Automatic annotation (TrEMBL):
<dbReference type="GO" id="GO:0004806">
    <property type="term" value="F:triacylglycerol lipase activity"/>
</dbReference>
<dbReference type="GO" id="GO:0046503">
    <property type="term" value="P:glycerolipid catabolic process"/>
</dbReference>
<protein>
    <submittedName>
        <fullName>Alpha/beta hydrolase fold protein</fullName>
    </submittedName>
</protein>
<dbReference type="InterPro" id="IPR050471">
    <property type="entry name" value="AB_hydrolase"/>
</dbReference>
<dbReference type="InterPro" id="IPR029058">
    <property type="entry name" value="AB_hydrolase_fold"/>
</dbReference>
<dbReference type="InterPro" id="IPR000073">
    <property type="entry name" value="AB_hydrolase_1"/>
</dbReference>
<dbReference type="Pfam" id="PF00561">
    <property type="entry name" value="Abhydrolase_1"/>
</dbReference>
<feature type="domain" description="AB hydrolase-1">
    <location>
        <begin position="22"/>
        <end position="277"/>
    </location>
</feature>
<keyword id="KW-0378">Hydrolase</keyword>
Amino acid sequence: MPKVAANGIEIAYESFGDEGAPVVLLIMGMGVQMLYWPDELCEGLAQRGLRAIRYDNRDVGQSTSFDDAGTVTFAEIGQAVMQGKKPKAFYTLEDMAADAIGLLDALNIDRAHIVGDSMGGIIAQLIAINYPERTLSLTSMMSTSGNPELPRSKPEAGAALASVAPDPAVDMEAYLQHYVNNHKAIGGRHQMDEEKVRERMRRAAERGYNPNGVMRHMAAATVGTTDKREQLRKLDVPALVIHGGDDPLIPVIAAHDTAENIPGAELVILDGVGHDFPDVSIEPIIDAIVSVTERAKG
């Protein structure tokens, strides 16, 4: 996959659709590669007349790794949180938002429809807040406003998020089964197809295994998931909030809270969907994103 220099690092990306079409920039969440955006979703957006661009955030996949900066463990992050302190972070979510803008710059794209999932949803919100002139529309998926009064994850989903996968170079089957189990823990009534999970994670292993990058992402997310409601209320951009009705990782009330704090935001709840992309969710997500891009045309 191609790479570009962006914000002082290298970003790997993949583009679907006509280069002259309106751009939908797809920002993935904590510790996972661009492959988590299903091929069917990217291709479906392209078939609807859009150019979908997915990319690896810093520290995952084929984008620049920050291993030389050091690392942090889940225990250290948890201890800091329990003590009311911030864990050591090696970069910020604002840095990651700047990476996205750097990618657009490198591809000579002035403005884009910004779509982010989970931690990527927070990054997308930051782009809309800090770079409104680059934002055609905002779609925040499976994410949160950072409202501290919102409920926490279900324990089993939180444990799945915090778990570190076995090294695929040592035991590929254990690595794949780890992610199958994780998807069951964060899924809803509609589960992802197990073979699709295995195939995606096999591809991810071939592109790069970076558990320390996952921890650095977690530190950045822990520090950066602050209350953004006041900033969101000032947005003047077509906005969409999508969430799974069965999400055990970020409860669906977070979607209602986010939508209530973005003027004019449309809220789409996917019945029976968890914190993932089962087959039944793909077309409704495509339809919703296409709808917000149409609203952005005025």
